[in-house]
Amino acid sequence: MGSETSHIVRNCERAVVTAYQELRQVGTTDVSAFHACTTLYRIHHPEASLNEARRLVSEWIDHHVVHHKQGPTAGCDCA
Predict the structure, then answer these.
(1) pLDDT per 10-residue tile (average), the chain, 79 residues
(2) Residue by residue, what is the 3-state secondary structure of 27-74?
(3) Is the pTM of this model over 0.90?
(4) Would you tell me how many other CB atoms lie within 10 Å of the CB of residue 47?
């Protein structure tokens, strides 16, 4: 699992993708994992609105988990 997310530069993005993958592996539903990851993002970025968090989390999951892409993603400005 670590090698799948090691290319991700942002700590919050790596945390979200890793958490989503691990929650899904233990049988958590897609919606529940998504909500947990949205909460996780907002812990890293309390200034983010719920809509912003949902958008970024869905983009990151789509990019890294659904499409298995390696390139950079849009997102927050943190490292």
Answers:
(1) 61 93 98 98 94 95 92 75
(2) CCCHHHHHHHHHHHHHHHCCCCCHHHHHHHHHHHHHHHHHCCCCCCCC
(3) no
(4) 7
